[in-house]
Specification:
Layout: H1 3-14, H2 19-28, H3 33-55, E1 78-81, E2 87-90, H4 106-131, H5 133-144
Antiparallel strand pairs: 1-2
């Protein structure tokens, strides 16, 4: 019996699937039918043993009662009208800013202007390389010879 198949069957049963559906899922996943059947039989034997063990009366422990403390409300409730004469009360949702996309800062504007200037300068260099490539080749040949 393979423990991985047994574990898969257990987790499927915990999620509320039937044993048959769990077995079909494992079979469709590529496991051998014989291995799945062995694991299912072992699982059924294990669960029947657990049921017998659980049916025995347990020793009761004294239960300590917890008295709830009074909860303080930090925000007032707003009255929400309903279509009927019933009224509902709901808590207002706080305004929460997730990002600061909507608020450009001075630093951001300076960075944008600087990047635009850099982009224009690099495009100018690229155009000059294409226009003056023969002169540049001659310059570098004379400089390193």
């Amino acid at each position: 019996m393979r423990k991985d198949i047994l574990g898969g069957l257990k987790s499927a049963l915990i999620r509320g699937e039937t044993l048959k559906k769990a077995m079909m899922t494992l079979y469709n996943s590529g496991y051998k039918k014989n291995d799945i059947e062995k694991a299912a039989v072992a699982l059924q034997q294990m669960t029947s043993q657990k049921v017998v063990i659980q049916e025995q009366p347990a020793i009761e422990k004294p239960v300590k009662k917890v008295v709830p403390k009074k909860i303080q409300q930090s925000t007032p409730y707003q009255e929400v009208s309903n279509y009927g004469d019933k009224k509902k009360y709901s808590q207002p949702t706080p305004y929460q800013r997730v990002s600061n996309y909507g608020t450009p800062k001075r630093f951001n504007k300076i960075m944008i202007i600087l990047l635009i200037f850099l982009l224009i300068a690099l495009l100018g260099i690229l155009v000059s390389i294409f226009l003056f490539k023969t002169e540049l080749i001659e310059f570098f040949n004379n400089a390193f010879n």
